[in-house]
Design brief:
InterPro entries: ACT-like_dom_sf, ACT_dom, UPF0237/GcvR_regulator, UPF0237_ACT. This protein has three helices and four strands. By secondary structure, the protein is α+β, with helices and mostly antiparallel strands.
């Protein structure tokens, strides 16, 4: 399984989750876990996804999500899970 952590931060607006999930499902990327909250109008979401079956490269997913974030007015960051697991072993 190839897991990635996606974070989305910005001012809340209608359709953020829908747009991100539509992109992911369109490229065979499975959402394993999702958490989102809105605090005083600011949207924050974290997702764990499996991109093992994705029909595009990981780098393409990263770039497309960054562009999608710019389009909808939020910051989207996608990082491989192994970055987090290796950081906490040091």
């Amino acid at each position: 399984m190839n897991k990635a952590i996606i974070t989305v931060v910005g001012q809340d607006t209608v359709g953020i989750i829908a747009r991100v999930c539509t992109y992911l499902s369109g490229h065979n990327t499975n959402v394993l876990d999702i958490s989102q909250t809105i605090i005083q109008g600011y949207f924050n979401m974290m997702m764990i996804v499996d991109y093992s079956e994705a029909d595009v490269s990981f780098e393409t997913i990263v770039g497309d999500l960054e562009a999608l974030g710019e389009d909808i007015g939020v910051r989207i960051r996608c990082q491989r899970e192994e970055i987090f697991t290796k950081m906490h072993r040091v």
